[in-house]
Recover the amino acids of this structure.
């Protein structure tokens, strides 16, 4: 009975399938590609291309019978990001390592003969799990263009949380310790916790309240969001109170209502002189710091998140001839901002400035471009039309009131008189100048 009470906190969520589909990958293969990367036999770009190849294969899974699939390096470059030829070099690395065999019409994942020594230790840390992991396709696209620690964090949570697939539904709840991910994947525990917080902010993971004894023994409980898709940058527009606007204050809550002090029982004379010679300055009425005007000379994080500020940067870049004003250039500009927000964990504005200054837009992935499309569409739909100028109307009839003809005629006559006087003065001055020049 006591054991059942201690287990009462555990409740399985409704089992469902990921939005956009998923691809079943062996847990051994996920560990294999990571151990190859840690051993230095493949680069991080090749590891990203490994997940991108899984995505392009899943795209052609339901191809009609009789049609021959076609694989191109440009498709992989859109998923991984990078310069021209980077996808070809990454695929060649995977082929030399024995992980992949690729042609123009086929991609095949292989089991290499010389596996790294750390693979058995990693599988042992997983408890000998050899089942298939249902990896959502949205996450495959994220893994195709992310960093080393972010890849380890995502793989660690997937191996712990995602089970099932095939004819069964996907189970997406489990217990994970950040120290376990750090020890198993050979990364920093602090970096894992930082990236996990970012994944929670993105909505990919959901933290569930867990008893303390479970936290000590097994770690915190998390739920994988199967309906997650990569969001666009959040809009955090600050509304300033302008002139002629009366701010509306929120009424106080019952627990914060003012309490009147009791009356003073002893009447005594108050001191007439001040004892504090340096009073504190008066506090500002605004608690939120107002952002400065966006400029390319000093790019801040809010410039990349806010659509209107990013459009202002694009207009400045167009005037500076850094980019042209075409629709394609605007899409590349927004894609660079999305890539900087997704990859730049420390200095996203600096990464965006480097991409813009060096014109290295090829590093933007297809996921960055999709998010940029959504942001541009949202900016166009949310742009308010400028209201027309108000025409004064008659208070009785309601018809538009125009200037009276007599008043308009008086204004015209005064302007003509001023013009004639200017002409006369100018002619007199010319005569005086001519007379002074001819005088002996």
């Amino acid at each position: 009975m006591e054991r059942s009470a201690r287990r009462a906190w555990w409740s399985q969520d409704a089992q469902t399938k990921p939005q956009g589909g998923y691809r079943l990958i062996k847990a051994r293969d996920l560990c294999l590609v990571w151990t190859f990367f840690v051993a230095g036999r493949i680069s991080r770009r090749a590891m990203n291309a490994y997940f991108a190849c899984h995505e392009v294969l899943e795209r052609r899974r339901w191809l009609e019978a009789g049609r021959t699939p076609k694989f191109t390096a440009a498709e992989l470059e859109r998923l991984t990001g990078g310069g021209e030829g980077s996808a070809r070099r990454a695929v060649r690395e995977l082929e030399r390592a024995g992980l992949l065999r690729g042609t123009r019409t086929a991609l095949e994942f292989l089991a290499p003969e010389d596996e790294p020594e750390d693979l058995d230790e990693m599988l042992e840390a997983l408890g000998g799990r050899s089942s298939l992991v249902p990896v959502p396709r949205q996450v495959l696209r994220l893994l195709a263009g992310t960093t080393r620690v972010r890849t380890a964090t995502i793989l660690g949570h997937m191996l712990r949380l995602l089970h099932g697939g095939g004819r069964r539904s996907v189970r997406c709840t489990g217990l994970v310790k950040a120290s376990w991910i750090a020890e198993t994947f050979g990364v920093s525990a602090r970096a894992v916790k930082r990236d996990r917080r970012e994944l929670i902010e993105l909505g990919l993971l959901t933290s569930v309240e867990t008893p303390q004894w479970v936290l000590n023994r097994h770690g915190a409980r998390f739920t994988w969001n199967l309906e997650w898709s990569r969001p666009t940058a959040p809009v955090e527009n600050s509304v300033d109170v302008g002139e002629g606007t009366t701010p509306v204050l929120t009424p106080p809550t019952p627990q914060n209502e003012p309490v009147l002090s009791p009356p003073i029982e002893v009447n005594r004379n108050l001191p007439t002189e001040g004892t504090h010679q340096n009073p504190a300055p008066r506090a500002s009425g605004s608690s939120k710091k107002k952002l400065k005007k966006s400029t390319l000379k000093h790019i801040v994080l809010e410039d990349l998140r806010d659509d209107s500020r990013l459009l202002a940067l694009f207009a400045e870049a167009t005037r500076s001839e850094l980019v042209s004003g075409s629709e394609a250039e605007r899409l590349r500009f927004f894609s660079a901002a999305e890539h900087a927000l997704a990859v730049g964990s420390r200095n996203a504005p600096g990464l965006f400035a480097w991409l813009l200054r060096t014109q290295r837009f090829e590093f933007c992935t297809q996921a960055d471009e999709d998010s940029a499309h959504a942001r541009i569409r949202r900016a166009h739909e949310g742009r308010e039309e400028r209201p027309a100028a108000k025409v004064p109307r008659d208070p009785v009839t309601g018809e538009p009131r125009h200037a009276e003809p007599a008043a308009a005629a008086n204004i015209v006559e005064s302007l003509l008189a001023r013009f004639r006087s200017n002409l006369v003065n100018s002619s007199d001055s010319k005569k005086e100048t001519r007379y002074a020049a001819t005088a002996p």
Remarks:
- The chain has a mean pLDDT of 78.
